[in-house]
Design a protein that fits this description.
alpha+beta
C-alpha cells in the first residue's frame, strides 16, 4: 500500500467518527449564561477556530464532517458559539446538513 493511500484512509476514518461529536443531546445540554468555554471544549473537543474581539468577546467554531466511502462530504455540522466576557455561552448557532438552529442570548 502506498503511504498516500494509508493517509487518505486514516483521514477519512477520523473525519467520519468526529461527526458524532455534535449530537442533538450535546446541543441540548448547552445552557445560555451557564455553560463555559472549558465545558464546551471538554464536550466537543477543541474548537476549529476561535477569535477574541477587542472587547474581550470570544467566538469559537466547531466544524465536523462525515465522508462517504468515495471521499465526498455526506454530512457536515457546524457549531458557532459566542461567549460572554465571563466565559459563559452568550449565544450559539447549530448548522447541520443545511439546517440552521439559532438560540438567541437571553
Amino acid at each position: 500500500m502506498s503511504l498516500l493511500f494509508v493517509a487518505a484512509i486514516v483521514t477519512g476514518c477520523a473525519a467520519t467518527s468526529s461527526g458524532d461529536l455534535i449530537s442533538e443531546a450535546k446541543i441540548a445540554a448547552i445552557k445560555i449564561h451557564v455553560t463555559t468555554f472549558d465545558e464546551m471544549a471538554r464536550d466537543f473537543g477543541p474548537p476549529r477556530t476561535q477569535h477574541v474581539n477587542p472587547q474581550g468577546i470570544r467566538t469559537a467554531t466547531w466544524f465536523y464532517f462525515n465522508n462517504s466511502e468515495y471521499g465526498a462530504v455526506q454530512d457536515q455540522r457546524t457549531l458557532t458559539v459566542i461567549y460572554n466576557q465571563d466565559g459563559t455561552v452568550k449565544d450559539y448557532m447549530n448548522a447541520s446538513s443545511g439546517q440552521t438552529e439559532k438560540k438567541p442570548g437571553r
